[in-house]
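Lay summary. Proteins are chains of building blocks that fold into shapes, and those shapes determine what they do. In this project we predict the shape from the chain. Here is one chain we studied, written as its sequence of building blocks.
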Amino acid sequence: MSKVKIGTVQMSCVADKQANLDKAIEKIKEAAAKGAQIVCLQELFTSLYFCDVEDYDNFELAEPIPGPSTDALSPVAKELGVVIIASLFEKRAQGLYHNTTAVIDADGTYLGKYRKMHIPDDPAFYEKFYFTPGDLGYKIFPTRFGKVGVLICWDQWYPEASRITALMGADIMFYPTAIGWATDQDEETNQDQYNAWQTIQRSHSVANGVPVVSVNRVGFEQDGAMKFWGGSFVTNAQGKLLYLGSHDKEEVAVTEVDLAQTDYMRKHWPFLRDRRIETYSPITKRFIDED
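And here is the predicted shape, written in a compact code that computers can read:
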């Protein structure tokens, strides 16, 4: 199978975890009705983005994976015959938590999980308070519709993460995301930030010759101080935008992606072939200096 239909669910969230899960399931069904074969949900879709504050009560939002949310999504995947990519707050053990994405195959089988590797600690994004960095390494998941690579939000900024995922054989890379603008910022700053975010991910597509899917939330949160900027998108293997979401509306979109284009792009723009891997060992240093 070379052509795959990708469903992206860009939505706003509320404080009720069950309501968010129910809403996501309805939107997965909507995507499937439009022909989607793989459906990707946004980062931490079962809750508001709680990492804007350091609050111990928020740990109550976490759950085991597999667990209640994957148990609810697996029969949906099986009924609809779709792969579901679901970003969740994982409770691994007492006092040990991860920002994790589960992958469920089109027959309802839980295939495994990826734990977010790069954890931010910025104003209104205090993720290091909640999440332990991932220890499963980079992952790909062999699904009915292709080998899926999954990274999460802050991982977006790191070409090393996308490169390794591509080298593991990913046919397509997915980034569940939660990122937005502080509402007291000027419009030029907003656009500069969004353009940087989109550009870095499109560059992963170009450098690796694989399609990229980035799914972000929308809506005002943090008592109106944060506007999650939506702007979800899908690229082809050359970084061309095939779909671009709005900045302020919920959207369920289905985009056809040709996975066979990877072979064509890697032959005609052979960035992967021409890598000088024998020169890259310094990249494992924190900084290249005398220390």
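What the prediction tells us: The radius of gyration is 18 Å.
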